Amino acid sequence: MTVHFIGAGPGAPDLITLRASRIIAECPVCLYAGSLVPGELLTLCPDDAEVIDTARMSLDEIIEELIAADAAGRDVARLHSGDPSIYSAVAEQVRRLDAAGVAYDIVPGVPAFTAAAAALGRELTVPGVSQSIVLTRVSTLSTAMPPGEDLRSLGRSGATMVVHLGAHRIEQIVEELSENYGSDCPAAVVAFASRLDEIVVRGTLATLVEQVHAAGITKTAVVFVGRVLAAEGFPDSYLYSATRPRGTH
């Protein structure tokens, strides 16, 4: 039997892969994060499926459910918001499943930052402006950042900066990034990306704090900082250049 860790996407129920949809429909057990995963996805579960909201469960309680399902010969759809590869708490779960000898796999999903970039209508890697993206977050009471991964250090590259889960620390983000990016650098915040209540704020590092507070954004948001957000006059990429050699097939 298998525990399937499934990326359920950023919020819109139709931003889920065909593979994920098929697996959910086949699994007799579904564990999902009720505060983050869209409830509409639960309609994909079999009518007689055991559906468990993990929002108020501890890690040990979740693992107990996964091991019990495996012992009973039942496949599990374990739904996580966004994509399991970032900020998903999947690592600590699979570590325990490895120790228990429980098989699992991972189904990728649409991460919040790509849905947010789509809402902005912007490519995050623009020729001649930025070809790198830094995905990061800020320290919280629950999880500190490792040494050297503070925003000032990461910002020295000048790459497009994407800060997850940071709306409640917007003053800190602006202060620490302004040193390297400048107060005139384009910036944006997208809250609840892809959902009906999506909020988009565009400005600069000089205006962002006031704009975020005015919009009432406090959580479930992605912060973007970088010149790509307002890039104009950049060179075309080589990908579609007429000078690029192309085969006949």
From TrEMBL:
<protein>
    <submittedName>
        <fullName>Precorrin-4 C(11)-methyltransferase</fullName>
        <ecNumber>2.1.1.133</ecNumber>
    </submittedName>
</protein>
<keyword id="KW-0949">S-adenosyl-L-methionine</keyword>
<dbReference type="InterPro" id="IPR003043">
    <property type="entry name" value="Uropor_MeTrfase_CS"/>
</dbReference>
<keyword id="KW-0169">Cobalamin biosynthesis</keyword>
<dbReference type="InterPro" id="IPR000878">
    <property type="entry name" value="4pyrrol_Mease"/>
</dbReference>
<keyword id="KW-0489">Methyltransferase</keyword>
<dbReference type="InterPro" id="IPR006362">
    <property type="entry name" value="Cbl_synth_CobM/CibF"/>
</dbReference>
<dbReference type="InterPro" id="IPR014776">
    <property type="entry name" value="4pyrrole_Mease_sub2"/>
</dbReference>
<dbReference type="Pfam" id="PF00590">
    <property type="entry name" value="TP_methylase"/>
</dbReference>
<dbReference type="GO" id="GO:0046026">
    <property type="term" value="F:precorrin-4 C11-methyltransferase activity"/>
</dbReference>
<dbReference type="InterPro" id="IPR050161">
    <property type="entry name" value="Siro_Cobalamin_biosynth"/>
</dbReference>
<comment type="similarity">
    <text>Belongs to the precorrin methyltransferase family.</text>
</comment>
<keyword id="KW-0808">Transferase</keyword>
<dbReference type="InterPro" id="IPR014777">
    <property type="entry name" value="4pyrrole_Mease_sub1"/>
</dbReference>
<dbReference type="GO" id="GO:0009236">
    <property type="term" value="P:cobalamin biosynthetic process"/>
</dbReference>
<feature type="domain" description="Tetrapyrrole methylase">
    <location>
        <begin position="2"/>
        <end position="208"/>
    </location>
</feature>
<dbReference type="GO" id="GO:0032259">
    <property type="term" value="P:methylation"/>
</dbReference>
<comment type="pathway">
    <text>Cofactor biosynthesis; adenosylcobalamin biosynthesis.</text>
</comment>
<dbReference type="InterPro" id="IPR035996">
    <property type="entry name" value="4pyrrol_Methylase_sf"/>
</dbReference>
